[in-house]
């Protein structure tokens, strides 16, 4: 069959015109043809067919596909394949005018790029003759407009290259004949005016050429409000000066770079390739391919680039940025190379980096050049190379999260079925089909990595008598993977062994210990601790491992530490050698040194953050010097960088039965996990440490860990688990007879009772904790915390007047250095209570101090809470725009950090703001959302406060029925909690007589 879409949609079979169906059927067929041999997603077809897809869209699409299949069944029953995510049209032996056009156009472009302009004109003329009118001419614009516009750009690009070739040949008459209708059809294509002027000048009509410039200038200025660009102005100046026409043409007609390396065959990457191509054909300016080394990112990027030569008709630029190497490429040197490829000679090359970027972006402003940036190291390296128009593919082993406009595409290991297909390619399809389960297990043991699967296939290929199951069993055996994943000179273990055997003994020992201990990447001091050598010796040993590619250097991390990593197969080799070469006693000493290093550094960082865990690791050896500098430079950044390693360290310590290290390290991580909302990590390390410490019988450490677990559950609003944890904590503290531990346990017991709605019990425990904390055996810091807890609890039940002196005393006591996070927290609580008793100026000062401290230590969570509290002050003082801005920032932060209580309180404040402005109906929307959040946490005191507002605001909005419902529920909850109306903390503008300040009804 012969398919035609470059004009009306036509299908011919052996000279006979076949009916192509309705307008929708023709559009579906054309879309499949444009994407021939590639997946066309169902979502794309639906979007093309309907602006607002009906519920039956997919069913209707299925019917359209069925109709097309029936029409062409006689010629090719398998023309359209159904795929899981859409459909693929297989052209096979059939012909498509678009494919023929693209092939001829690409050959013409290639000829023009090499200076063979005569051949270029002939090929492009042949390509353009295939057009029978606008693409999809018989499909309505409403359906086919987007596809038609894309194909029109391809036609226009081919026509422009033909024009350039004709001008280069001096065939000005032909160029003029071709360019005039193009200008008429594309009145805002500035580059066409430039070519028309050159053609007119070439036939001796320079005055008319300058008239064209004036007409273009008027059109652009009158219609668009802009001046013509520099290229058109340059053409005008050259014609005015009477420059030789060849010089003007050489300036206007730039080379078309084709810098992509040859495309390697891809296996199992069809959908990924389709997606990359689809994104670049659409509106995505940057596609970022991320994944581990060797997974095939570069091959995918290059293949996508080769498939898009028609779309990016002005060429492809390629650079290996070497971001994973020790010396990444300088982006400004890359810019120089790119500009030379675009025709900028040495005399025009800017020396200033910013001017170079500007010129580069000007050259690529037409949006028809593809830039492939391979192996990017970081965002600053990439940004100067982003053109601002056209398409960009970036590959990187890192996430490059600050490239905000990039469409991120993860390049993972091969899915099982695709890895099996790759195995079948090399080992034989019949063998794989005969043993499907063994094949699936082989690719699983290869980790789905294409390289490993190819080696497995190469091992099997010359041995047709061997079964896949036999190979699977050998691969799965102890140390079997490295034994079997070798073919020819590709022998992983032999390669590693050759390097390792040549190492000095200490370097070999370091490699083995790193394989057994280190996480995915690690700072240099870890190597020092594992061997107990000097920093200089460590550097020498690590350099030896790096030189033979057993360790990969990653450069400096964000806190200035040198980082390294082991390749996965190297790590496996190191682990198996370590198990046989080192005694358990030697390994235990090395492990304890490394874990102690983690603990010492975590303790240093925790102290700088505020040390909410208190002293828990007395007697630990001083931290490694190289790590200390990083910690002191930025403790939060250090924690963030080493987060994964610290979690693994707690696991190592727990499994190695080192309870003191496991417990102390879990406690030292608590403040960081709290303020960064890494709740899963926090609970994991605490549970592991508690199990280890329970087995050891160390009650002092167990008491601290139970306090940490209580805070972790409180932090996640998991109130139901608090009483059980508090009860065990109180029992352990009772056994210890330690006054401070008992005070902490009492405080937690009171908080658990408060959140369970048992106010009398809660205040009994909290007041007892304060009383005991005033004793001589308890440090002022703990008294400060207990006063703050009691004051905050009183504020929560509406007794702000009683809370204020307690919170004021806590703030006064909290002057010890190193308590900045808690200092901010105490001032925040103090400000809340001052707000409720109407001392708004004092509240603003306290909250302002809390905000400054939170921002100084980069406590995003604390900053969000304080912003929300300051918004409450703004609302009461009528600064509504200030309040709105603060609440917007708080809302974004709480959503990002996943804090339900913070989100609910911010929604409540947004409702207060709307109510204060008299927008009653609008106020109900965030308030209902807040109620849903608090119902999810089970916090009864918070639920009753939202119900109180819903009661008043619903009534103000005129919905008395809803108000009555909320009122009834509120009274029921208050009665169950034994609290009075004061606990609702309703702001003055929602009451008749100002803020209520009575105490809770129970006598505590």
How does this structure look, described?
Keywords: DNA-binding, Repeat, Transcription, Transcription regulation. One of its GO terms (biological process) is phosphorelay signal transduction system. Residues 1-91 form the OmpR/PhoB-type domain. Residues 1-91 bind DNA. GO terms for molecular function: ADP binding; DNA binding. By secondary structure, the protein is α/β, with parallel strands linked by helices. Among the domains are: 1-169, Winged helix-like DNA-binding domain superfamily/Winged helix DNA-binding domain (Arc Repressor Mutant, subunit A, Orthogonal Bundle), CATH 1.10.10.10; 270-410, Rossmann fold (3-Layer(aba) Sandwich); 416-488; 717-778; 787-895, Alpha Horseshoe (Serine Threonine Protein Phosphatase 5, Tetratricopeptide repeat); 899-1004, Tetratricopeptide repeat domain (Serine Threonine Protein Phosphatase 5, Tetratricopeptide repeat, Alpha Horseshoe), CATH 1.25.40. Helices cover 64% and strands 7% of the residues. The chain is built from 46 helices and 17 strands. Helix 8 runs antiparallel to helix 11 and helix 33 (699-715) runs antiparallel to helix 34. The protein is globular and about 105 Å long. Mean pLDDT is 85; it is low at 993-1004.
